[in-house]
Amino acid sequence: MRATLLVSLAAVVLPLAAQTPPTPPAPAAKRTVELTGLVLMNGFFTNARVNNSDVPQFADSLAPASAVGGTIRQTRLGVLVTDPDVLRGSFSGEVDLDFFGGQQPSTGGRTFPLVRLRRAVGIVSWPHAQLLFGQESPLVAERSPRSLASVGFPDFAAAGNLWLWVPQVRATLEQGYTLRLAEQVAVLAPTSGTAQGLFTTQPDSAERSRRPYLQARVRLAWGPTDDPSEVAIGGHLGWLASADTLFQSRALTADARIKVGPVEVLAEAFSGKALAGLGGGGIGQSFGPTGDPVRTKGGQRPAQKGTVGRRWLRHRRSRRRRSVGRARQPAGPAQELRVRGARGSPPPRAAGVRGRVPTARDHVPEREIHGQSLQSCRRVPVLTRE
């Protein structure tokens, strides 16, 4: 009897022991909050008068005045939020701050910089769709030259580059897997780019048009979804009110990002008119002296023959201005200011001005949907909960 029980017990236990233990369920995705930051100190030297000492855009016509100094106001701080279940999709949010909002009128001066909101976006993503809302770079001008010497304003902001962070709502639909085609549309808050007061604001010429800015973009992407290569074309349409007349702000754009191993190649180009509301175009001018829209075109292109890179921007006066008895001027720039291999058509150059010293490329890469981001900086998770 005892032997029979032992044999029966072995017959039951051995098959159970041979079974593979069940795979534990995958842990549920968590909501997270992370802090990011970049502490950046810049030194500068100028041998002539410029519009801004630490991040100059153009030479001033005042008497030369050489200077040397340092600043830390291009330091950036950010907060990243994720939630895996929002509207049957995933949510990610980002707030991006720096200290480039001016300085206190005090003896501290440069050492008491004011906080500035650069970008604040929320994104809800589904497998083949995405909805973005917040303040972000224009849909048709997400790429800008990058340098640690110019973080407060992207390079060539005063030479025509389109970059201004604008409140907007953006929708994206994407088809395909290996080769992905996406259609994007955006509705942006209208802005002419004119300066506002210290606290209260008044409607500018774009807001007085009572119409939003409209933008669309078609892109073709391939490679990893979190680090893709892509080419795209886009269009912009807006309106500016002057007295009883509505002028159009228009642009056609093209951009590309090609990733080959550790090498990233960026390029962009645009052509349009009255684009100061997007941060550049015609050296920050939408209208010329006669009140006509300023036509402008420009872009950036990758390095050639082993150089660090060359970017070009230029503008030309409206044809209507030429027709009122003024001498016709060439489409290319009449004067040139070289800054780290750049050429453009800035205001009159002060005698003896020297371009800023070339610097290494900014190590903070630009997220394709977020523009210049802090995603790759050091992260400090401060909250994780189910």
Based on CA atoms alone, the radius of gyration comes out at 27 Å
Structural class: mainly beta
**H/E element sequence:** HEEEEEEEEEEEEEEEHEEEE
State the major sheet: 15 strands, mixed
Q: Which CATH class is shown? A: Mainly Beta
What is the straight-line distance between the termini? 55 Å
Regions with little confidence, pLDDT below 50 for 5+ residues = 303-373, 375-386
What fraction of residues sit in β-strands? Answer: 35-45%
Strand elements, count: 19
> Within the CATH hierarchy, at the fold level, what is the topology?
Porin
Name the average pLDDT.
Answer: 77
Count every helix, treating DSSP H or I runs of 4 or more residues as helices: 2
What shape does the CA trace take? globular
Q: How are the strands of the biggest sheet laid out side by side?
A: 16-15-14-13-12-11-10-9-8-7-6-5-4-1-19
Number of domains: 1
CATH architecture title: Beta Barrel
- Helix coverage percent of residues? under 10%
